[in-house]
Amino acid sequence: MALRRASAFAFVTSIALFHQPSLAAEPIPVSPSAKAPLTLSESLVGQDREQYEAGKLAFQSTNYAGALIFFEAVYRRVHDPRLLWNMAACNKALARYARMQDVLRLYIAEGKDVISETERDQAKAAIVAVDALVVRARVQSNVDGSDVYVDDDRIGRTPLTEPLRLDVGEHRVRAMKEGYVDFIERVSVGSQRVMTLNIKMIAKPLLPAHLVVLAGPEQTIAIDGRTVGTGQWDGTVSPTRHRVLVTGKGMNSYANDVSLRPGEEQKLYVKLERRSNLATWLWIAGSVALAGGVATTVYFATRSTGPGTVQTKDPDKSGITWPGGPVVMPSFPIPMSGPTSSE
Question: Model's pTM, two decimal places?
Answer without folding.
Answer: 0.53
